[in-house]
Description:
This is DUF559 domain-containing protein. By secondary structure, the protein is of the alpha+beta class.
Amino acid sequence: MSIRHLTGVFIGSHAIAEGVITRKQLRERGFRRLVQGVYADPGLSFDHRLRCRGVALLLPGGTAIGGHSAAAWHGAPFAAPHDPVTVLRPADVEWRGPRGTMVHRTLLDAAEVEERDAVPVTSALRTAWDVAALEPVGTAVAALDAMVRAGSVRLPLLQAMVCDGAGRWGVAKVRRAIPLVDPRAESAPESRVRVACVLAGLSPVPQYEVRVDGVLLGRVDLAFPEARLAIEYEGAYHFEGTQIVRDDERIARLIAAGWRVIRLSAADLRDLVGVVQRIRAELARPQ
């Protein structure tokens, strides 16, 4: 094999030992380092799953990619490219992992592991448990919303998992997260805002259709129908093509019909307490 055919993900020392590449070529040809000692063809799309593929080349037997990292294979690809890769290991496997991994010691049954893209990942239901147990509640619920929406897991199974999990590690966090799951949410930011509201005692309705005299004016991310208050998250897609024009026209129709609209961006999500305060203040205003 020549360097021209060195594609995909590979361990650098192995490629050098096999004579496929030299150390100098490894440094100078633009190969992307995923974690220490593991590289990828620069033409591959760099996302969290690619980093997981790199870590998978180093995993000892009995371990698996899990938690928020495994969720990328189950309908919730929300982990960022540089987020640590979550690895689960049983007690009898001693492995700390390279920098860029988070290794958790736990009970791990072989039946809870499946292979996806040549990567050992935890099953959807096991992933759901670990996401709820390991992640902050807003992050966890966003992933679980997406997994249920994608059909990877069913909400009744998640609810049954809570009932069957007495005494299991992380059960308190799981019991907090599962009741908040709502697959109507269509984005992670929307889920996070909704969770922040619910935990503050507010009850927004996800993906609410605003109708006047039977005419659909638009669907909003979150709504307080009685107060005629809508919450809209505007991600990067809002500025693609003519989307911004369509969104602005829809919001103008809502305002003309007597609705108030709070428009949020990624910057607002850095202060969810402040977002909830804004919503509460609008709800307190007379219509």
